[in-house]
Design brief:
- The chain is mainly alpha-helical.
- The protein has three helices and no strands.
């Protein structure tokens, strides 16, 4: 092993360089702090831009989604009406009266409507933010209305 390979030797004459003064060390620390703060502000600006772009995309997508939901509802309703008309026609062909055929179609529609309403109410229960309310109540924030006493 040669003297230049020895990690303990600092140079040819074996002396270490003099440490920086306190003033120089403080300047370096302050410079590093300014660079860190600048990087944090740059990250914040980039994050704000990302959130703004994401919200603009979501707003545009929501409008378009609502338009397509309207188209789906219109065509779904018209196909349901045609399906019920075909059912009434088929039932009447099998010998049922108009009143009986229309009543069966109406009862089928009422059953599907009741099922859809029941499922919609089950999903609306998720919009009450129960878990968040419980956590806020644990922290002593927010009023406890008493509407979830059964929990």
């Amino acid at each position: 092993m040669s003297p230049s390979d020895d990690p303990t030797s600092a140079g040819d004459d074996g002396e270490r360089p003099a440490p920086a003064s306190l003033e120089e060390s403080l300047r370096r620390v302050a410079g590093a702090g300014r660079e860190s703060l600048s990087a944090a502000f740059d990250s914040g600006r980039a994050w704000r831009g990302l959130v703004a772009a994401d919200l603009a995309l979501a707003r545009s997508a929501l409008g378009r989604a609502l338009a397509w939901v309207g188209v789906a509802i219109a065509f779904g309703a018209s196909s349901w009406l045609l399906l019920m008309a075909a059912l009434v026609s088929l039932l009447q062909r099998f010998g049922m009266s108009w009143l009986a055929a229309l009543s069966i179609a109406a009862l089928l529609s009422l059953g599907v409507t009741a099922f859809a309403g029941w499922r919609a109410m089950a999903y609306f229960e998720h919009t009450k933010l129960d878990a968040t309310r419980r956590q806020l109540a644990r922290l002593g924030l927010g009023g406890h209305d008493g509407d979830d006493e059964d929990a």
